[in-house]
Specification:
The structure is a homodimer. Chain A is of the alpha/beta class. Chain A is built from 14 helices and 7 strands.
Amino acid sequence: MKPIKLIVFAVFAVFLAALRTHAASPLPSWNDGPAKQAIIEFVQATTDNTNPKYASPADRIATFDQDGTLWVEHPMYPQMIYCLKRIGILAAKNPEMKNEEPFKTVLSGNPEALGKLSAEELQKIAMTALTGMTVDEFNAEVTKWIEWAKHPRWKRPYTELTYQPMLEVMQYLRANGYKTYMVTGGGQDFARTFAERVYGIPPEQVVGSMGNLKYGYDKDGRPMLTVEPKILLEVNYTGKPEGIHLMIGHRPHIAFGNSPGDRQMLEYTKAGDGARLALLVLHDDAQREYAYGPAQGLPDTKVGRFPQELYDEAGKKGWVIISMKSDWKRIFAFDQ
Amino acid sequence: MKPIKLIVFAVFAVFLAALRTHAASPLPSWNDGPAKQAIIEFVQATTDNTNPKYASPADRIATFDQDGTLWVEHPMYPQMIYCLKRIGILAAKNPEMKNEEPFKTVLSGNPEALGKLSAEELQKIAMTALTGMTVDEFNAEVTKWIEWAKHPRWKRPYTELTYQPMLEVMQYLRANGYKTYMVTGGGQDFARTFAERVYGIPPEQVVGSMGNLKYGYDKDGRPMLTVEPKILLEVNYTGKPEGIHLMIGHRPHIAFGNSPGDRQMLEYTKAGDGARLALLVLHDDAQREYAYGPAQGLPDTKVGRFPQELYDEAGKKGWVIISMKSDWKRIFAFDQ
């Protein structure tokens, strides 16, 4: 080969190699840093069958909290916004609700009063709004709502306010043989209406809170399933590992969360043999999303609170903190 | 081509075609008949995207009862045999159980007295035997037991007493994009210990009865999950469609059972749009397995009873009856 040809060939080979590297580089919306590195090292170790930390394909389970981990939860959980709207519909049919708390406050629409509702009152609102329908009616109603409801800040559907870096993590894990599960304190059937379209997570891989199911018949004698106003599963705190065992039957190898409701899921994940990775999303980017803690001096909040003791526990136990501000190049798919 | 060569070629082509047909012929342990035909027509219709009954791959859900549908349930459910043995172990540690019914009867080992235990007494035995352990302890104990315990008639492990024609149906459905689920009134964690090895059904595709799960810590502070003696899910009768919605979130396209505990699952399956198939195994082969009804004049039984009204309902609603005697060429893999 003549020298000039050799140079052309060498340049071309370098160019091809660069192209390949680029195509194979996972997590493009992540900055290089300890969080991205931990995820990639974990995937490489558990999928390399010469590595002592290798995980068999059947064991490759990844679990993700939803609110604040996969999509925006501020200023209020999207499901709670749906519930408030549904209380309005129910009150129009049942006028006695207009004089009953906490529905009276809900119907006032006063943001300050809404912000002061207690956990018990919010639970009562959710139970009233999310039960009493057949699963088919509920599914149809949420499917309609989720299409037109818009976030007050971005004026976009909630399903567009999913975190692009997390969507990439899910794709990367699936490309490496992991089954991705959502494990949410929110309603299982609520999330199932859009989880496949938005996250690529099919209904059977959504683990969430559930009311009691009741099999019966409609007026034409056709079978129907109704959700009763009685909690069957509450997938939060200890309910996360309990729900994981019930619905999946394996311990996850990797788990993502963002608040104390995810603590036990992360602890349970890390208690397994071999490589296990636990990660917490820290909302420290008021400009591109929101900033709340009160960990690390961030403003305190009632929604998705991240206390300093969780931050300290993460440090002691080797749970990885994902800083939205420094670890993520972009937050949303529509960001430039 | 000369005539002689042409004939050789034609014979060879026919031979090849026959080979192909043979290789592609599913359900080799099934006799040609209405049950085999219904299964094959169902699979062909739901996987042909030019057919109006086509089912998208995400919707291809198949559910199977276990006891009497996938493996032998006579003279007693294998799980109940495990429970009886475990009562013995518990009574050795807790002598007061020796004077308490129904444990006293269990410990007597008297088959006639055991046969007279009521449904409530059997439930008490099961709850006592299947709860109070961590899920890891339980898993380890059942894994050991299922390896050495042998059926009194065949002197083989229960896991060899699975029905070969049903294993073929599961393989055939999976080869056509169906996800196969077990939906059993028996314990979910019990079946999970062997479902993958025996049926190719991974833990997350086993839906069964469950006690309440409780997250806690062992004496070394390690997380553990314990099963409490309180029913969370009872996956029988109406509990089958309820468990299917909870754990799968789709209506099955095809469902197999063998007794009234499966009735609602079959009804729920058939109530969906498009092609839906419901099938019931009838134990009418005393020589190769067992014969019990009392449908169709078969002997009555307490275990896996198949009443005449279920048989009549199947006829009215187009549910397919699988006769073990006439539809199955062989029952077990070890049969000639």
